[in-house]
Amino acid sequence: MQVLVFSNQKGGVGKSTLSVLFAHWLAERHGARVGVIDLDTQCNCSKSLHRFDSGMEAVALFESQPVRIPEAAASSITLLRGSKRLADLELAKPEVVIPLFRKQVTLLARAFDYVVVDTPPALGLRMSAALIAASRVVCPIELEEYSIDGVTDMLKTIFGVQKRYNPELRLAGIVANRFNPHSVRQKAALHDLVLHYSDFVLPAKISTRSAIPEGLAAGVPVWQLAKSSAREASVEVLQVFELVKQRMERTAAAEVEEEGAS
Fold first, then answer.
1. Where are the domains positioned within the chain?
2. Distance CA 92, CA 13 (A)
3. Which segments of the chain are extended strands (E)?
């Protein structure tokens, strides 16, 4: 089961953008059946993927009634859309709704090759539920002071969930997103990030490119746009995704070997 969460405890770092693009990439380039769960009340992921709407809201995954999704076809995306009703979950009892979500996602994952989860930009019930139900997590960050400061908190959250609730959870990488190659400050921040978290930072970055939001506004991934800036952006995005997938597969293979040895 490959359930990948894009998560960070700070907003504006590109979680929704990468969730959407990664889902497109898996479906188009790898012929995968991809389920996408939007847990953010801003619903940006749902807006970009509206043509793949399953007719189901993500909030239904926190309820006891089993979610029934039509059989997914290869090279396709199925969206469980976000809604304002998700905000009410923060007042629910975690010991009740989080196990329900975990069970629903486990059942849902059987219908797909991958499940991609976009989380809200704050630690709360929905982010915790996503991490408890996931097998992998990617942490996108912007190379600004507050974003860098938040990396340690996010790593503490991830490894805390791994230790207490979900031993199968693995960090697939920290992604430096919206990088400005002309900024001396951001270059220094990237150097410090790699220095402190070399095991986790992916050896690739995604620069600030206007073509990425242009593609999302048009409902297509950036590599489908016919412009030079889109080609340049695509090279960076696809390199990051290849590294994420390699880490997911390498970790999964290591887990299988561990199980065989035991």
1. 3-261
2. 27
3. 3-6, 33-38, 53-57, 76-81, 114-118, 136-142, 170-179, 201-207
Residue type at position 211: A
- pTM for the complete prediction? 0.93
User: ∠ at Cα 86 (42, 103), nearest 5°?
Assistant: 125
Tokens 């990051």: give the residue: 240
CATH pick for 3-261 out of 3.90.190.20, 3.40.50.300, 3.40.1160.10, 3.40.190.10: 3.40.50.300
Torsion of CA 243, 244, 245, 248, to 10 degrees: 120
CA distance 231 to 260: 43
Three-state secondary structure of 41-63: CCCHHHHHCHHHEEEEEHHHHHC
Query: d(Cα 49, Cα 21) in Å, to the nearest integer?
Result: 10
Ranges of H-type helices in 110-227: 125-133, 145-164, 184-196, 211-218
The residue-averaged pLDDT of 204-226 equals 94
> Percent of the chain scored above 70 by pLDDT?
94
